[in-house]
Design brief:
By secondary structure, the chain is mainly beta. It has one domain: Porin. It has 1 helix and 8 strands; from the N terminus they run H-E-E-E-E-E-E-E-E. A hairpin with an 8-residue loop joins strand 7 and strand 8. The longest helix has 18 residues.
Length: about 200
């Protein structure tokens, strides 16, 4: 379900990219955008380890990002994301957390006087930790690398505040860890809500 919704949002985003240049909600050079968001709903996660083991989990994530617009509608900034997950591997429950951060590039496309869409790309590094309920299994800490692509629809309540609905696709690599002690690749497709403040 989440993947279908994300694909729909991405299609709308691509359509808006085609019509955006003829419309008017632009972000000018010198604008600073600060955004907070959460993907607490509609999260679908697929895991696959080197051994071929697959499992699924649901997660809640909170993100904070900033963009400084170097040119009209083109911004460069930083993204920080913290997530918590509950995973079930057989009868063993695992609580995992991760924190990632990295540079963020964004492009804004106007789709009306009070609306716009944005496309954002980020590469990141970070740390992850797994804690097992099973006392016979040790906790695991590992390094994270990856990238993500985000498409968002933004409605401006005022010139300085917008509410956002976004879809993101994230690829993460956990090195030397995961539950099995092997390298693990993670693919996340999520839908979330956010709020942005614009300082000019």
């Amino acid at each position: 379900m989440a993947k279908r919704i994300a694909i729909m949002i991405m299609v709308i985003f691509l359509f808006c990219c085609l019509v955006g240049p003829v419309l008017t909600k632009d972000l000018n050079k010198g604008t600073l955008e600060v955004t907070g968001g959460s993907t607490s709903l509609f999260t679908s996660t697929d895991y696959k380890s080197d051994s071929g083991t697959e499992y699924k989990a649901e997660s809640v994530a909170i993100s904070l990002s900033s963009l400084y617009y170097l040119k009209r509608n083109i911004g460069l900034g930083l993204l920080v994301n913290h997530s918590d997950r509950n995973e079930l591997h057989g009868t063993n429950k695992i609580t995992s957390t991760s924190t990632i951060y990295g540079p963020l590039v964004g492009m804004n496309f106007s789709v009306g006087e009070k609306d716009s869409v944005k496309g954002l790309v980020s590469a990141f590094v970070g740390k992850g930790e797994y804690k097992n309920d099973n006392p016979l299994l040790s906790d695991v800490t590992n390094d994270i690398t990856g990238w993500q692509v985000i498409g968002s629809f933004n409605h401006y309540f005022t010139d300085t505040v917008s509410g956002n609905v976004f879809a993101e696709h994230v690829r993460k690599s956990y090195s030397g860890g995961g539950v099995s002690g092997q390298d693990t690749d993670v693919r996340d497709t999520t839908i979330g809500l956010g709020l942005s403040i614009y300082l000019r």
